[in-house]
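Q: I have 616 residues here and want to know how they pack in 3D. Can you give me a structure?
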Amino acid sequence: MGDPSLVSGPGTGPSPDDAGALGLAAAYDLAPHRLSGGAGEVLAGAASIAASDLDSPLIVVAADLSLSPVALLDVLDAADATCAAVVEGGAVADRADAPAAVRVSEAGRLVVSVGAAGRLVTRPTGYAVGVLRVRASDRAALGEALAAATAASPATFCDADPFGVILLAAVRAGLPVRAVTLAHQSLRRGGWQLAGAPGSPWQQRLRSASRGNDGVFSTLAIRPLSRRLTAYGLARDWSPNVVTAVSLALGLAACAAVATGLWWAWLLGAVLLQASLVVDCVDGEIARFTRRSNPLGGWLDAVSDRVKEFTMVAALAWVAARQGSDLWWLAVLVLTVLAVRHVEDHAYATRRRAQLVAAPGWPEHPMTGGLDDGWLGDGRRGDGGPEGVPTAMPQPPGARARRLRAAKQVLHLPIAERYLIMSLGLLTMSPAVVLWALGIASVIAFTWTQTGRLLRALGGRDGFRADRPDRQLADLCDLAVLPRPSGPGRLAWQLPGLLLVLEAAALLLAAGADTTARAAAYAWLAVVCWHVYDNVYRLRETGRGSASWLRRATGLEVRVVVLALIGGGLSSPAPALLVGAGVLAVLYAAESVIGWRAHQRPQEAPVATTGQDGRS
């Protein structure tokens, strides 16, 4: 990490030595600098320190901060970014004596507004804990901003919190300050404190490594089990990628058990499917706990989830066919709904992010300039937000709000709820019950999300601007010849899902009433859906979609023409559909490997020992 400096401001609370910040000096080769005196003197000293060494990062810690070294590691290890520790406002019930309020941008997760020295934050989202890590390349700009602020209006900051002013200066100077959210960690700033999760700091870190935005079933049942297994795996240095492989193996074993059609095997399959889900959460928790994350790991985790779902649906349809019921058409429809939902979720999310990031100024971008710039509509100093926007931190959600949020999560049907439907359905020993239950639940979830998004779009409440298109939309539309959308349409985000529906219809028409051909059509669609998921997660993790040569050779128009020839010219379409699925699988897999190797090549040295982010 080099030779970073550490600055602290005055305060009556415990010193950073007590908090453990300076206790990390040996491990991180810190050169501490204590600053005392009034706020103006502290700012002047901080400006001098920031400009004194431009080859190593600078760490600023408030003197009255009490925080475990375990929590500090998240900020200290951010080697490539200037970042600040933040707690979400919704997690804070006691607002008295709270530190500087901040607004964190929704799309970029950057600190874009700071409430310090009497400046107000419009629509605040959290609090700055008291730790700021400034990368070496940003030290000069911070030093200049602090020196200018101290010289221009020293009286303005005489009673201000020095740390808040330093953070405000960094944001106003245009430095990108990434928000590192501390969750479930105990901390104290002077007379203000926040109770963390039960247990030691390491147990709190383990709780933080467990995703907090899961569905109801995952939060109540799956995550408590996965954290216990994660703690066991951390003690034995488990690799996240190996855990992903174990989860995939358990899921495929569940599918194999279901494919036998035996009652006891179906019971075993239900158990194995839930075990696979628990293990699936462990890889992400280990990766986040150990900070061994990379895009390839997140892709492996997410795509393996899809493989398990696709295979389970196929196993159910296979058993139904052996029992004399052709449910392959239902399997095709279920798979289509699942894939359409996912690709539309991604398309809508990236469209929204493009709209936010491209919008200049409030609320996603910081106001740059001097510390005295920016006024609210009523004449108070602020961040230039529009008149009437709230400046008070939202209160933590009450019981009714939490119940409503839980109901919405269930309606959205996340992966834990889908796996629960399949496991419970397996107890009925009926393939039709499982497929219909999964299909109906998926349609309800799709209707729920679609209705809300369409109402917002048609009512002009979705923030749409035609001059801020989503550049990834073209990569989501797998078109070979037809012009791909550029993203200016208000409902353009629906096109990738509509293209999937078109292909599913073409497959069912090509297969006709032949049960074997419908099974082959499912295989074709599963391969295409895998390619869709591969493309979505590569765009999400790397910003790069599939290669243009693959799109031109196997785009939707090419596939539909081939399906038309198969359905119209062959009396037995099953062999041709299976061959087509095999050819597509080889091409898609080869292109994916080439794409990931090209993405990793320039990063081989930094990520050689990393694991995965794990979307679970």
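Q: Anything worth noting?
A: The two ends are 30 Å apart (CA to CA). The first strand starts at residue 5 and ends at 8.
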